[in-house]
Amino acid sequence: MRLLILSCLLAFSVFGQNQLTKTYIETLCSPSFHGRGYVNGGDSIAAGFISKSFQEIGLKPIDENYFQEFHFPVQTFPGACELKVDGESLIPGVHFLVAPNSGPSCAEFDCKKGKSYRVVTCNVEKLYQSTSSFYPCPSNVILAVRSFGISPDSLKVIKTRIRELSAFAPVMDVTRDKFTWSVSQTANAYPFIQVQDSVFERMLEGSIELHIETRLLKDHVAKNVIGYVPAKKNAKRKPFLFLTAHYDHLGRMGQASYFPGANDNASGNGMLYSIAQQIAKQPLEKYNVVFIAFAGEEAGLIGSKYYVEHPLIPMKNIRFLLNLDIMGSGEEGITCVNSTLFKKEFDRLIQLNDVAHYLPVIKQRGPAANSDHYFFTAAGVPAFFIYTMGPNKNYHDVFDTFEALSFDKFDEIEHLLLEFIRGF
Ligand SMILES: [Zn+2]
User: Fold this and answer.
1) For residue 339, which of 377, 293, 375 has the smallest C-alpha distance?
2) Ligand 1 centre from 133 Cα, in Å?
3) Contact 373, 388 (CB under 8 A)
4) How far is the CA of 331 from the centre of ligand 1 (A)?
5) What is the pTM of this model?
6) Which residues of the chain have pLDDT under 50?
């Protein structure tokens, strides 16, 4: 009976822990966090939430608070982001995307109404040669380029030409590819959109109406959120382990649509939060453990670069760094970037997995500049970047939602990483 009660309690506490982490992730993905980007202060709201959570679970700040501030320019879409055909609005993120560096459809600070454009389709062979025959472009024309059904080599040239066009004319890139949005630190003067070929036919007949409001934030203040758990004894003399995950995402594309960034990377923050709770409950003997939720990753690894250039702890005192990004769908296991550089640590990770059979695959991958471990590795800090592999391919799009996360192997990865961390 007692055993039964104990196992019930255990099951409850494991379930409780799990539910807490899921709620944490769901909160980061909610509309009130605005896609953790640069419209309505989404990234700042997320920073406040994460720091408060760090404090609640017992992480200590390294400085006087949990924040490390830095700034950078970023193009934003704070108001209207509309594309109408025959008076009917198309769905942002599904039928069309506004390029991250798109300019407005009218003056930046006076853009209350949409503007009509005549759609002119560019001859792709002509465009391949040069953009000169499309210059100058009348101000009421938007140049459309069908950038599909082209060989990969030619496509590269065409994509370059599209960028060249966008420097002097409104441009529409017509595609059949999955939409993938990003963040830009620069702004064009003219509107620049991507539309799905499936809705393009309707535009050929007449005109379209575009209403894009933009604001270039020249000096946006972002914050890395940093907390740590001191080693059990003599913490001041102990080296450090780092666990990192970026919390920023792409934000809003107008007030009507936002990018929740559930897999990328609310999921990694959930993992960080969950592991931090375990370490806070039972600190390490030999290491202080630092937890960093980085800002500015999607804008070009800016937060982690800033940290490496302004370290709060001497870089040589970091024994190892684990960076987590895309943790929400582990059906096919994980990939370990830098595994070829740090053989001993990778062998240990494999061994732990072989014993407990947590994951079907731990895939090796060499160095790559694809997340926040990169500048640490470049500065000589041993690091792995770990991401999950699974059927969830919702990447940098409006479909990367909390509901789409399977959480497959989430607990297994947490156990594996905890064992790995406690083994140093
Ligand atoms: Zn990411």
Assistant:
1) 377
2) 40
3) no
4) 18
5) 0.94
6) 1-13
